[in-house]
């Protein structure tokens, strides 16, 4: 089938048939946009996680080198190390999420192309856009589950940090504390 045959295909003689294909091709674009929003948000979360980890690393290095006037207590060092462990877990989850979301975005782009090809030239491949669309949605779903896991990990980490600060404050405010 050559290009002229594709253009004169009886399925595209009417304007409404051509518009139906274009409408179908736009649907994955909406999913691409939603995936892009997820990517932006997840990239921001990963950046904040990495920044926090780097900040903790600087504090620990300054303490090790003795450049800070006040050395960190063993309790503080232990707390900071636990923070790095949690940040590492979060960063790994977020990196996995980004991989899934980039993959989903690519699959949704391929879905749009497959809709056009299946509509115009490859009637036997009409199942392909559906399989691609479902695959992209599954990737987004898995990414969403991982983002929930990461958010819970973040919340637990924050609660631990608050408990640590409250413990220090109580120690400072208790009678006889110096």
From the structure above, extract its key features.
mainly alpha; 84% helix; 178 residues
Secondary structure layout:
Elements: H1 3-7, H2 15-65, H3 74-120, H4 128-173
Helix pairs in contact: 2-3, 2-4, 3-4
Word description of this protein:
This protein has 178 residues and is mainly alpha-helical. It has one domain (3-150). Helix content is 84%, strand content 0%. It has four helices and no strands. Helix 3 packs antiparallel against helix 4 (128-173). The radius of gyration is 26 Å and the shape is rod-shaped. It starts with a helix and ends in a 5-residue tail after the last helix. The mean pLDDT is 86.
Radius of gyration: 26 Å
Total helical elements? 4
Return residue spans where pLDDT drops below 50 for at least 5 consecutive residues.
none
Number of domain units: 1
The helix/strand class is: mainly alpha
Outline type? rod-shaped
Distance between the termini: 88 Å
Please provide the count of β strands: 0
What's the story with the biggest beta sheet? none
What string, H for helix and E for strand, traces the elements in order? Answer: HHHH
**Percent range for β-strand residues:** under 5%
Measured as a percent range, the helix fraction is over 70%
Instruction: Name the average pLDDT.
Output: 86
């Amino acid at each position: 089938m050559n290009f002229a045959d594709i253009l004169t295909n009886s399925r595209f003689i009417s304007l409404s048939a051509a518009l139906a294909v274009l409408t179908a091709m736009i649907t994955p674009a909406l999913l691409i946009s939603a995936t892009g929003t997820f990517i932006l948000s997840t990239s921001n979360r990963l950046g904040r996680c990495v920044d926090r980890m780097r900040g903790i690393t600087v504090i620990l290095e300054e303490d090790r080198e003795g450049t800070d006037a006040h050395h960190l207590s063993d309790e503080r060092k232990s707390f900071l190390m636990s923070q790095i462990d949690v940040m590492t877990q979060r960063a790994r989850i977020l990196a996995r999420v980004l991989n899934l979301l980039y993959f989903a975005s690519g699959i949704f782009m391929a879905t749009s192309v497959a809709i056009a090809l299946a509509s115009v030239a490859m009637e036997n491949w009409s199942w392909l856009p559906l399989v691609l669309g479902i695959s992209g949605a599954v990737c987004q779903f898995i990414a969403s589950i991982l983002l929930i896991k990461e958010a819970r990990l973040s919340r637990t980490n924050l609660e631990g940090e608050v408990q640590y600060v409250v413990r220090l404050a109580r120690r400072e405010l208790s009678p006889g504390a110096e």
